[in-house]
Amino acid sequence: MNISKQTFAATRGCAASCPVQQAGLCSWFEAPLSDEIAARSTQSQFAPGVPILRQGEAANRVGIIQTGLVKIVLNDTNGEEHLIQLLYPGEMVGDPFTIESAFSWQAATQTSLCWMPRGLLAEAIRTSPMAARRHSEATNRLLQEHHFAQAALRSRNAVQKVAHWLFLQMPARRGPGNVRMRLVLCRRDLASLLEMTVETLCRSLQQLQGRRAILLLAPDLVEICDPTRLRLLAKGYDDERLQETLLAKGWEWGARALGPKLTARPASDLKPSGAAVRVS
User: Domain spanning 4-151 has what CATH number?
Assistant: First the structure.
């Protein structure tokens, strides 16, 4: 259940205030089609962990993420949830060309969505060559990101996976002092993303701390004490090349919200009461 909902006003002023107007799906269309879509859109907010679209549910609308993170989840026959991928502002929740949802979309953090009618959006993409091309590019980018994530998990044990993931979250350009990163995913989601249990994730973090690579300042705050040691503990010959590739594409493997723009800052810059985005 969404915690609040309000209808968008069908005005240009409302469209201009959208935080992802230039980066999201809305930029695929030109007037008057963009005006028609905006006029028939609604805004919803979701608390962390709240389902947005359920697996197997018939959906008549598609959402564009305005703020927050959304996780794509697969529910198996035993009722277990498996986090498949994370989505970010400007990306799409749901499929405009599919009525029944193959996965479950859930809010990973406090999330704001702009809803659009599925049928209207699908027809608009079909009839606009530019929109069709942009939709294909967006779909391909998400597929490539998922491939990179799977490649990063291959041939690594639990400690190596966690070390590798933390190493990739570090900003490419770092100032003086240790880097502190505030995690915005809950432990359960991060464990699922790295394909391990929560208990294994906690043990791995403790082992990395015991080896003086990191310091756990709080459940959601990690300080990187020794980046070189952390990289060696990841034991990946392709770590640096993979990091450069992902950063160049703006991906940062499954955790773009942990990049320097939002949460990874030198320790000297991170105030104890700072407004860094939480990732648990």
Answer: 2.60.120.10
From first to last of its 280 residues, the chain has per-residue pLDDT tens of 333 333 333 333 345 567 666 666 777 877 777 777 777 888 889 999 999 999 988 888 888 898 888 999 998 888 788 888 888 888 889 888 888 888 899 999 899 998 888 888 888 888 888 888 888 888 888 887 777 777 777 778 999 999 988 987 887 666 777 888 888 888 999 999 888 999 999 999 999 999 999 999 998 899 999 998 998 898 755 556 666 666 665 554 444 433 333 333 333 333 322 222 333 3
Q: In CATH terms, is domain 155-269 a member of 1.10.10.10?
A: yes
User: Which H/E stretch holds residue 85?
Assistant: strand 81-87
pTM for the whole structure: 0.72
With b for 16 or more beta-carbon neighbours within 10 A and e for fewer, the 100-112 pattern comes to ebebbbbbbbbbb
